[in-house]
């Protein structure tokens, strides 16, 4: 979705009047810091000190905040609060967002404003303290709410009906009265999002998650269970056919699936490299989707826009975030989609090409084969194993950079916490340029706070430290190669060089593209004896890192040669090149290489390659004759000749 289309959507949204009914809550955040706390003289107990505190609208209030971020013409809130300080704070904050709170009913008896107190200790959330769990909404309050709902249905373009709190609807008559209203205004956009009453309302659009759509089909699903996307498609279609109103199912990192008269529209999740906080992502999605529908967009495009919006908020930590149009545009520009998330996590579901070790991740790829004229290869872990073990060098560099002078003395618990963070970061960023990894390291050093700000190095300095350690290892291996103590076959994947030669024989123009520095890539390819096979060129990271990326190389190949996607194949063991090959419409072949053995399958690589979009997975090139036969749709006898 390009910037111009996003601008058009935002302009349409600016004319929309939307109402929100729901359980309006106040999220309270207390950042705890006991360094200066004291023992109470009166009780003798240790006091807990709050360093700072802040408050944001939660529940349906977060829906309002998300709506406000997209700047519709008007927002009306319909709900109940208590006669308490939380209710007054919540009302004031909603008014600051520009919402009309005239239908905010204050119930003075048996009702406390829903509020969730979240204490943060060392960046982690302690057990929550909840207010309002014993509320009982009165019949009079319900009547006022129903009247406000009817007025909204008459005057607004859309209504979001949001229910999240257990027991928030206490009178069955309220459900009957609301259904009568929805029946009276059947053409109005009413978006239902309810944790406990999805099957109690009629004549509504529906936004739910994968577990809720399964429950609506009679299944008992545990809260932490992921329902397979293939099943979600069936469940969503069944619910749409039952009520004949659009259905939107959010599937976490697996994206959103919309159902309407045209069938289903699947929007894949987006791969995000940083820390994530999924709290409130559903509120962001429903807000964006509803505004899009009210602005006249199709369910398919509304789901796409909502997915981008949710990808913004999950990157905002320790707050129920919102997504502005500008932020959505950034995420929507060349997003890194997650493919086949269910398959990635379940190797038991793998399907192999007959008599091979080749996993077919996308069956449709078989119809595209037979036309390859150009090929892009990653280097390390795909062809060469000279740099095998780079992770074991990067990890201690990161650890020492983050912990600084405390590296040798920090307690074991903190040490292992930092170590786990480093391992996760390395896993997520495998295959990208080293400089971008070092950019992430700078952020981690600053985030952990063990190193004073004036002692934090820049990304180039951290890269130099890492490269020094890495090249010490690589140079020792190169010396053995130069002396003839070890040969090409000791530092290349099984069958890789022979496979390159067979591609060359078939007239395929080949390119080598690595996140390693360009001079080092060329030198290593020459030492290993196959640099001359890459007649398209050998590319690597440059000092000005903005002038090289695998994406740039692939786009240049397609542009210069006027290629169709099926004429380009991309081979690699990292998600970066696989993702770019898939984005370009090419054939993405993932290598799940065991770099220590130089043959065989490394199961740790499989999930990230599948998620990046690999259509075909191979462990190595030992079956290169069968691979050539498959890729070029030749008989195996021809491949062997």
UniProtKB/TrEMBL annotation:
What are the Carbohydrate kinase PfkB domain coordinates in residue numbering?
49-317
Keyword entries, A-Z: Kinase, Transferase
Taxonomically, which superkingdom? Bacteria
Species source reads Dyadobacter fermentans
Q: Name one GO molecular function term.
A: kinase activity
Checking InterPro entries in the record gives: Carboh/pur_kinase_PfkB_CS, HAD-like_sf, HAD_sf, PfkB_dom, Ribokinase-like
Q: Which PROSITE patterns match?
A: PFKB_KINASES_2
State the name under which the record lists this protein: RfaE bifunctional protein kinase chain/domain
Which Pfam family, an example, fits this chain? Hydrolase
The keyword Transit peptide belongs to this UniProt entry's keyword annotation? no
